[in-house]
Write a structure and sequence with these properties.
Length: about 240
């Protein structure tokens, strides 16, 4: 499997990070944060190769490039159906994105099929399992084969269970451990939380993701303390990184 990081950031884009977006095997897009479309172009990848989008939760830093992707696909003559999975509200969001921006629907020569997912559902022909995170918005944790992605969540056992034995866990790491109280108050995880979940799940590789502009100064600290708490491989995601596993 291959993961292209299209957005390793959070909250709002910075000069070095777009917001949450990860492309698996050039076909499956997990979250679609602002700036991710531009990174897809920079990576030299084709938006029309994407056949399914998986949205973790309905917060702006995970969905704001949705309209950009749809319009990019429309203007590059996409014909194949696009599947979009997400929590309840995803269908309404897509409808608003198109209609409120006065997008002439006749320009879209492809169908968009939305599937509203409840945590625990197995989807996409049985190839993707889901679990529930703990976040301010309803958060879906996804597993596809050896890849698992948390979206935004406090540290939860559900992640460790879903990710059990997988090769690559992308776990949000919004704060360093010394800001644990703040992290949990705002329904997020620290880097040490991510490391402990990775250890419980016995994954091979932990990728820390969801680095906000405010926490950029703490990125090296987060990586170090995650390494101290998990003895598999730990990496900090960066935009345009490519992971093969
Ligand atoms: Zn977020």
């Amino acid at each position: 499997m291959k993961v292209n990081v299209l957005g390793s950031g959070a909250t709002s884009p910075s000069s070095r990070r777009a917001c949450a977006s990860y492309l698996v095997d050039e076909k499956y897009l997990f979250d679609i944060g602002p700036g991710s479309y531009m990174n897809l172009m920079k990576a030299g990848l084709d938006q029309n190769m994407i056949n399914a989008v998986f949205i973790s939760h309905l917060h702006g830093d995970h969905v704001y490039d949705l309209g950009v992707f749809l319009w990019g696909m429309a203007t590059r003559e996409r014909k194949e159906k696009l599947l979009v999975y997400g929590p309840k509200g995803i269908a309404a969001l897509i409808s608003h994105v198109l209609s409120d921006a006065n997008t002439p629907v006749s320009f879209l020569k492809f169908d968009i099929e939305t599937v509203e997912v409840s945590a625990g559902d197995t989807i996409h022909g049985g190839s993707v399992q889901t679990a529930m995170g703990e976040h301010a918005a309803y958060d879906l944790i996804y597993r596809m084969g050896d890849f698992c992605y948390t979206g935004d969540t406090r540290p939860v056992l559900a992640t460790a269970t879903l990710a059990k034995g997988c090769k690559m866990l992308l776990h949000e790491s919004s704060f360093p451990a010394r800001l644990e109280k703040e992290a949990h108050t705002y329904w997020h995880s620290t880097s040490v939380d991510a490391a402990r979940i990775a250890a419980m799940a016995d994954v091979e590789n932990l990728i820390l993701v969801h680095i906000s502009p405010v926490q950029e100064v703490n990125a090296a600290e987060m990586l170090e303390e995650a390494k101290e708490n998990f003895h598999g491989r730990v990496m900090l995601a960066s935009d345009l990184a490519e992971f093969l596993f």
